[in-house]
Specification:
The structure is a homodimer of 360-residue chains.
Chain A (H helix, E strand, L loop, with lengths): L5 H4 L6 H11 L8 E6 L3 H11 L4 E8 L14 E4 L12 E4 L7 H8 L4 E3 L8 H15 L2 E3 L8 H12 L3 E7 L2 E2 L1 H8 L4 E10 L1 H8 L8 H4 E9 L5 H9 L9 E6 L2 H7 L5 E11 L5 E11 L2 H21 L4 E3 L14 H7 L2
Parallel strand pairs in A: 1-2, 1-4, 2-3, 4-5, 5-6, 6-14, 10-11
Antiparallel strand pairs in A: 7-12, 8-9, 9-10, 12-13
Helix pairs in contact in A: 3-12, 4-5
Chain lengths: 360, 360
């Protein structure tokens, strides 16, 4: 991808006034501009965002914020400083979009509304049931500050949600199916590790092939939890631990495993390290629906992901939406948004003309 | 789907002023409103649009326009009148969105810019190379009339384009693949029927399974035309025709067949009617791309369609975008748009709140 000047990047759907704003802000004689990004929280997702920024020539990492002692945090990008989160409030003139890389349980419900008072923000809030509440909180902050806050960006919620929406709008009479995996569930892996006698463990969620095939064949099956996914566990047990008991404890664990066909494999720490250290994931969103004068024709829309690294893919989606946040705010838009509210062209550094020519 | 009042339908992203406009225009005491649709051209696609409108409770078919004698055209919807195309100019107060169902070769390049002078329009213009020119023509008309014109809606261009765009924005370093089929190619079927000694024929475009698998496996193969698709022909020959000659003529036809591995099957008219009268289609859009500090992780994004009826599915996409055209114009937006320019929420009759709750 070629470097773009700000006026080119901001071409689509942008009023002359908005274009002027961004131009004034960044143009330096003889120098290309970038969208200046801050990363707030530096775990797997934060590192993924850092890598994704390097793949996008119109973006620049400006700062990483951490709750740890900044001295102890080593990042990948030369010349970029790590700050304590308390310093985030002082860099509003240096950062265009703050990407929040904390967890959905306790971090984001507080951090996203708080940071939206100062910055355009993007987060990956993924507690589906609490999205309406989170949206309201971010909306209030972002409207007050005149910023844009895009929440729940990633693949589910995110790309999977988008595909559910498009497919529902096209096939009005139909049925949705979402399958996850094959991939590592962090929550289920954590649950295994809490079992007595377990040193380490990893859990894969696996879609049942027969269920997938029935859906793809347009059979519109009613599927129970057990019929949709199986759970595969790889467990490192303590020396002399009661493996039969560990297996039984895992398989009967309510909420996590008892509703599924679960297999438990005992392996060595070395084997776990060698074969199960990645964080792959993925899944399938399928809608099966009918059209015609008598609904006589069936259609299948399928979207699937096969990801070597769950956090790096999520980060790549987030970074594209950071571009959208920047451009929408430059146009004068404010408040909370989700992937549903954003025209796809905003995600691309290319102009509308280029997109129509090359991708339509 | 429940019927919606106009204010509910128009809830998302709409200014109070815009909402007032649509409210004034339609509200009748105690009666629900609909988006009033006209169909311009009544072939396979027009009939598909008619069926799709019946599946969307917030829409109403108001009129069908034809170049034929209207008396000779029988439609499926009771109480809706068929008019000659010349009457289209007189119904601007009765139709909110005109859906153009003509062909891309000669109809749409003229009709869409013409009708955009009077109506919000949606078309399925699919001559990829001429999209920039068509966009400009429709943009000019629609800006002058203060209407919205959404062009190139369907599945390719359309849903496939959207998936190419999203996938390109997420996986910056990657490779795109589009496979078509298994499905009927009208152009290739027509070409078969022009061969001497052929009474009737149908051609299926079929993706090569090995090519698809190599792409899905992240092997990023360089594929020739021949390696991506095969062509299967079902041909009804005249009595006593030289079948060997017909087969050779088809297989060597430049542009259509000579670059492909083509099979020719001779069958009876009855068999053609019985087994090959449908218009199925579909295909696959796949992007394979890399992320990580050293681009060490691979990801596959795949979108696929399996359609019993190509025109009915295309029509279903178009009808969802007709809703968007109506709502965008109610907000005061004008000019040409493509699927790239339209936020997904505009396609749905549900409010932003409902969408976040149910589909995000």
């Amino acid at each position: 991808m070629l470097m773009k000047t700000n006026s080119e990047v901001s071409d689509i759907n942008q009023s002359p006034v908005a274009r002027q704003v961004s131009f004034d802000k960044y143009e330096q004689k003889g120098k290309y501009m970038s969208i200046r990004i801050g990363i707030y929280g530096y775990g797997n997702l934060g590192r993924g965002v850092e890598c994704a920024i390097r793949q996008n020539d119109d973006m620049e990492l400006v700062a990483v914020f951490t709750r740890r002692d900044p001295q102890t945090v080593k990042i990948l990008t030369d010349g970029v400083k790590v700050y304590h989160v308390d310093d985030a409030k002082n860099m509003t003139d240096k950062i265009d979009v703050m990407i929040l890389c904390g967890g959905s349980a306790t971090d984001l419900p507080v951090q996203t509304p708080e940071l939206a008072k100062l910055y355009n923000v993007v987060d990956s809030f993924d507690t589906h049931a609490k999205i309406p509440e989170h949206f309201e909180n971010v909306d209030k902050s972002a409207k007050a500050s005149g910023k844009v806050g895009i929440i729940s960006v990633g693949w589910d919620p995110g790309m999977f949600s988008l595909n559910r929406l498009y497919a529902n709008c096209i096939l009005v009479d139909g049925k949705d199916y979402t399958f996850w995996g094959k991939g590592v569930s962090q929550g289920h892996s954590d649950a295994i590790r809490r079992v007595e006698g377990v040193i380490n463990g990893k859990q894969y969620t696996v879609p049942v092939p027969e269920a997938l095939e029935a859906v793809r064949a347009g059979k519109n099956p009613e599927l129970t939890t057990r019929q949709k996914h199986t759970r595969e566990c790889f467990v490192v047990a303590e020396d002399g631990a009661d493996k039969a008991k560990i297996e039984k404890t895992i398989k009967n664990m309510p909420n996590y495993f008892s509703d599924y066909d679960t297999t438990v494999n005992f392996i060595s720490e070395e084997e776990l390290e060698k074969n199960h250290s990645g964080i792959p994931h993925g899944g399938f969103v399928i809608r099966s629906g009918k059209t015609g004068a008598n609904l006589e024709n069936n259609h299948i829309i399928e979207y699937s992901l096969k990801l070597d690294s769950n956090p790096e893919f999520t980060a790549s989606v987030i970074v594209a939406y950071a571009r959208a946040a920047y451009r929408l705010n430059n146009e004068g838009q404010i408040g909370a948004k989700t992937v549903f509210d954003i025209a796809p062209a905003y995600l691309s550094a290319k102009s509308g003309e280029e997109l129509r020519k090359s991708l339509l």
